[in-house]
Amino acid sequence: MPEYIDCHAHINFPDYDSDRSEVIERTLSQNTWMVNVGTSNKTSKEVVDLANKYSNGVYAIVGSHPTEEGFNKSEIMELAKDPKVVAIGETGLDYFRDGSLEAQRDIFESQIEIANEIGKPLMLHIRGSSGSMDAYEDTICILKEKAKVSGNAHFFAGTVDVAKKFLEIGFSISFTGVITFTKDYDEVIKYVPVESILSETDCPFVAPNPFRGKRNEPLYVKEVVSRLAEIKGLELEEVQTILVENALRLFSIDK
Length: 255
Prior knowledge:
alpha/beta, TIM Barrel, eight-stranded parallel sheet, 17% strand, globular
């Protein structure tokens, strides 16, 4: 059993070109596992190749970010069949950035179809237009209509009401290092049962305190877990164990 699992990382990104192997080895040596997430067909192949370099502790998620172009369903379907691939994504809806919302929906539904066919969960990227929960609400409607699998809402920035709707359809919610330097997420974290929470870094972005401003790493997920335990008023060891079990269960990873 690992002590921590970073359920959403991007170690394949160029930020790690100079020391990728060292970062991974350092993480694994401290009993922390990682799930690297594709954002396009190209990066999805990268995370699969990376996961297959390690016998244990490094896994992959394949799919296309809602604002990426060049999605090829058949390519993602083939990658998704790899045993080291544990989910499909990061997929969803992003109304904050420019792009065709119709095209986003079509690509999202295509990835739901892949997940349904191969029986692997979804890793969701959702970002509403400024000050709105619109992308969250639309995502939930699509999931209710199309999805036959569960999944996780990554980098959750929704309200308690939105969190409730995700829980009702069996989805988990993950938080990043942002929770270590703002209290904006405290109310939602207190509401969501710890059995429905995952921990993530979204590295190389949003490094937690005390590493804020530096390149983020999967190893820093321990700071996220520590803050989650503090907000929930639970012992760190208890939260560690539950969050690891949550990730292993969602991703169907053998202990």
